[in-house]
Amino acid sequence: MNRRDMIKLSSFAAAAASAASLPEPVEAQDSQPGPSYGRWDHVELDFEGPAEGNRFIDVTLSATFQYLHRSITVQGFYDGEGSYKVRFMPDEVGVWTWTTVSNAPALNGQSGSFECVPAQPGNRGPVSVRDSYHFGYADGTPFVECGTTCYAWAFQSEATQKQTIETLSSSPFNKLRMCLFPKWYQHNRKEPPMYPFPRSGETNDYSTFNPAYFQHLDRLILELRRIGVQADLILFHPYDKWGYQSMPAEVDDRYLRYVIARFSAFRNVWWSLANEYDLLRDKSSADWDRFARIVAEYDGFDHLRSIHYCFHQYEYTRGWCTHAGVQDSRMEMAASWRADWRKPVVFDECKYEGNIASRWGNLSADAMTRRFWLAAAQGTYCGHGETYLSPEDILWWSHGGVLHGQSPAKIAFLRQLLEETIAVGPGPIGFTAIADDPVGARRPNGAVIFYYFDEHQAAEGTYFLPEGKTYTAEYINTVTLARTPLPGEYSGTAEVKLPGTPWGSLWFREKGIA
Amino acid sequence: MNRRDMIKLSSFAAAAASAASLPEPVEAQDSQPGPSYGRWDHVELDFEGPAEGNRFIDVTLSATFQYLHRSITVQGFYDGEGSYKVRFMPDEVGVWTWTTVSNAPALNGQSGSFECVPAQPGNRGPVSVRDSYHFGYADGTPFVECGTTCYAWAFQSEATQKQTIETLSSSPFNKLRMCLFPKWYQHNRKEPPMYPFPRSGETNDYSTFNPAYFQHLDRLILELRRIGVQADLILFHPYDKWGYQSMPAEVDDRYLRYVIARFSAFRNVWWSLANEYDLLRDKSSADWDRFARIVAEYDGFDHLRSIHYCFHQYEYTRGWCTHAGVQDSRMEMAASWRADWRKPVVFDECKYEGNIASRWGNLSADAMTRRFWLAAAQGTYCGHGETYLSPEDILWWSHGGVLHGQSPAKIAFLRQLLEETIAVGPGPIGFTAIADDPVGARRPNGAVIFYYFDEHQAAEGTYFLPEGKTYTAEYINTVTLARTPLPGEYSGTAEVKLPGTPWGSLWFREKGIA
Predict the structure, then answer these.
(1) DSSP of B141-178
(2) What is the DSSP string of A430-442?
(3) N or C: at which end does chain B have fewer Cβ atoms within 10 angstroms?
(4) Where are the alpha helices (DSSP H) in B273-406?
(5) First and final CA of chain A: distance in angstroms?
(6) How confident is the model at residue A439 (pLDDT cuts 50, 70, 90)?
(7) How far is A498 from chain B (nearest CA, A)?
(8) Residue B462: closest CA among chain A residues belongs to which residue?
């Protein structure tokens, strides 16, 4: 086989590309000898290999990609129907070469090259930690994390999945928490259309994988990538009736290597080792340590990594965690956790807007919005979910579909304010505590300083502004979204008259800069 | 001197009685040989004694009161102008006799008797702890504590003091926190009309007392008694410019004995050793231990005793504390503190409704009300205060006057609900935790069970009602005060449809009983 044969879109990827207007591969330019790919898009090598034996286990395949002095090795995977694949995400513009290593002669020692061209507009690259407590895209653009949750959307009807993408496209949410395994829980009592492993009766055949199951996940992750949403992939979870929370260790590890090989070249991937790791009774802390090592070792692109707990808070200071993905409603802890852990803190789950009987799923819209403000005012991030009862029993939190609540519009408003703030310049958002309550966040460069007053309603206040700067002030009602410029200019020790209403936020912006 | 001369109203008490329609002494009945007093009213013995020396220190005076087999000894005090007094609160109907002991021959060995007659309507006796976590009057009536705060009302104009009494009379508040020493703090920057000790320039004469200062406090406490308000007397506090927070130990102790001798016969007295004890830098824990012992030893009527902190929570398990009088905004801690301390928990200070710049004084009315509900739903009690800016700088929290806020009406509504509940029958209010949030309180006898939903808005819920009982259900909106009976009857595992709005409370009442 020659290189032109080997490098091709697989059939499903072609379908996804057509549905989703994916940018890769772009047409080869006349001046280029081979195919070209956009920076941070994924390259896919597709090989014909051995047809005999257990091709998921017996055949090893990896490829090393080289750009100037740098090389990155990634694992390949068997995708069924005789197709062995290697996926890669080039992060530099220019010519990359690659070589394969395999225990199968037909797959070993293959090599080739491709051109990486500048990213198309809207492709900002993968997200990583920036300024200790925040996130940014690889192209330097700040990423103001604003997440939501559709745990089991991958296992719903095609129509609902399509609707979920449409809803997300017009929502403020730029990260989605989703499970890779199907879910069995309240409002989630049906069999998935497919299983990750061949299944007969109640028995899983863990010696192999069901490629169609994972190809479907490929499509969904790429759809999220297309609309600019980070896919926060939950690798394990306890809401299971099929056995996936209690697989043998070697199956856990093989599963991890498989999904890493499949998905890590997708720039929008984040890894969450688990949802509620402490509810997986058959896993020990040694298991979680091993999973963390596997993810860190096999992911050639160093995607963001965290883990989510139910009762027992994970020790987020551990090195493998890039950020904390907490389940907690104690928003008042945000600043101290941030300071202790010295990492971004994301309240991935702090209860959801909705009206179901379960207390974690019946926050009012204002309560949900308030938690976003409390997180933001402490320089941390919050996560959304929605659980309104519906006649079809389609709840956004698990199934996706459409949003019914009032908080997304108010969260969008906050995200917009934060993005304007972040755009002012580099440097982390700091935290200003007043007395015993978290209320203020500011830019250390002093261009934007804001306070969130929560249930407080002062009619006046004294604010200590950085020396030598002059500010305008604006009062924002976070419930009505009314914005009221306050008269005059402020500097030094500023005495400010306030409306004296609760749920307010005061914004100082440096004149001529912010 | 004969007994008829000795037992008389002092001039100020006569004035107070006339102003306040005090019930004692009632007219002697024809069948009685001497004066008679209502049960739980105060008897005052008034003696002429030595005119030479330091009559506050050199002359000792006590009296032992006897009723059948019981005897109670109380200290007397010098009230100026040659008048030595002993005050006593009889708690049993019948004939009491008394005898004095003094180092002054003229005051020693005096004796007499009086008739204690049944209490007049509205006089329910002093309040003490009931059912471990609650309070009750001596006549058996439950006391649903509902406090407010006017720290320095005793040192305001006569007109403001009068207004404070009028305001309290039509308010839901049945306990008032007030300082015995004048206060120097923001919004409190004026000299009091009188000082507790003679004062010359910046020097206090601690060898004596200013009786007029304490006679004024007598009047105010009796005015509160008249309108049915408990006087939670704060014995020390740090907001001081005159030296009262740093007096020599023997002066502290003499001051305590003096105010106990004066005030403890007033049935509405509660003792608070301090406001923010931990801010009195010159006091050690040994001092607070000694103060606690003095109060417990010299108060013959065992009034309620507690202490209030700023940063360092007091160890409320200590024996001398009858209840906890916390300063804290962590309402979610109420149930666990109650369980740990096994005493009534009163959030005497959890911030105030108002709009001043200080964060402790700018809660919205709904936030203040919410804290009362959170306390009540955990079987504890909350305290109110109000700090709205005013042109005259009269803020209820310190000065009294009038109330401007919206929370008192909503708090009154809650108090009414709780009193109806408590009236159903004996037994403590229990606590029901659902998941990680405090939301429910119930009567263990099962006649009334209620839940507070806070910012949650479930549209349905399952409630586990005691077996063998049938209930009606009512949904209460704690913000609008709308009450909505829910259709049908409920028993066992009750599935309830709810309005799905936040700030709701669900009440189950046993049919035919509650």
Answers:
(1) -EE---EEE-TTGGGS-HHHHHHHHHHHHTSS--EEEE
(2) EEEEETTEEEEEE
(3) N
(4) 285-298, 334-341, 365-377, 396-399
(5) 58
(6) low
(7) 9
(8) A357
Q: Do domains A3-117 and A430-510 have the same CATH topology?
A: yes
Q: Report the share of chain B in percent with pLDDT over 70.
A: 89
Structure token digits, residue B62: 């006590």
Both tokens of residue A487?
């008269």
Distance from CA of B434 to the nearest CA of A (A): 8
Confidence of residue A442 (pLDDT cuts 50, 70, 90): low
Element holding A43 (H helix, E strand): strand A43-48
> Model confidence over B153-171: pLDDT tens digits?
999 999 999 999 999 999 9
A502–B436 CB contact, under 8 Å? no
Global pTM reads 0.88
**Residue B28: its pLDDT value, please?**
37
CA dist., res. A170 & res. A187, Å (int) = 25
pLDDT value at position A9? 35
Instruction: Taking residues B8-12, report their average pLDDT.
Output: 36
Say whether A462 and B329 touch across the interface (CB within 8 A).
no
Is 2.60.40.3950 the CATH classification of the domain at B430-510? yes
Which candidate from A359, A364, A500 shows the least CB-CB separation from B437? Answer: A359
Please provide the average confidence, as pLDDT, over all residues in chain B: 90
Q: How many other C-beta atoms lie within 10 A of the C-beta of residue A97?
A: 13
Exposure pattern of B54-88 as b/e (b: 16+ CB <10 Å)?
A: ebbeebebbbbbbbeeeebebbbbbbbeebbbbbb
Nearest to A359 among B329, B367, B434 (CB): B434
Better pLDDT: B229 or B379: B229
Q: What is the CATH number of domain A142-405?
A: 3.20.20.80
**CA-to-CA distance for A209 and A57, rounded, in angstroms?**
10
Whether the ω angle into residue A196 lies within 30 degrees of 0, i.e. cis, is: no
More confident residue, A160 or B52: A160
- For the segment B457-481, the average pLDDT, to the nearest whole number, is 93
Fold classified for B3-117: Immunoglobulin-like (2.60.40)
Closest approach of chain A CAs to the CA of B320, in angstroms?
29
pLDDT tens readout for residues B86-114: 999 999 999 999 999 999 999 999 999 99
Q: Residue A105 corresponds to which tokens in the numbers above?
A: 């002669």
B434 and A355: CB-CB below 8 Å? no
Yes or no, beta carbons of B363 and A457 under 8 Å apart: yes
Q: How confident is the model at residue B34 (pLDDT cuts 50, 70, 90)?
A: low
Q: Compute the nearest-CA separation of A52 from chain B (Å).
A: 54
The overall average pLDDT reported for chain A is: 90
Residue in the block written with tokens 């009723």: B67
Residue A96 bridge partners (DSSP): A114
Cβ within 8 Å, pair A456-B367: yes
Which residue from B minimizes the CA distance to A366?
B455
* Region B389-398 average pLDDT: 97
Residue ranges per domain, chain A?
A: 3-117, 142-405, 430-510
Exposed / middle / buried, residue B103 (Cβ in 10 Å: 0-12, 13-18, 19+): exposed
> From edge to edge, which strands make up the β-sheet containing B345-349?
B324-327, B345-349, B381-382
3-state secondary structure A120-136: CCCCCCCEEEECCCEEE
Q: B434 contacts in A (CB within 8 Å)?
A: 359
CA A266 to CA A269: how far, in whole Å?
6
Contacts of B140 (CB under 8 A, 6+ apart): none
Which chain B residue shows the shortest CA-CA distance from A387? B458
Interchain contact, A460 vs B502, CB within 8 Å: no
Distance from the A376 Cα atom to the nearest Cα atom in chain B, whole angstroms: 19
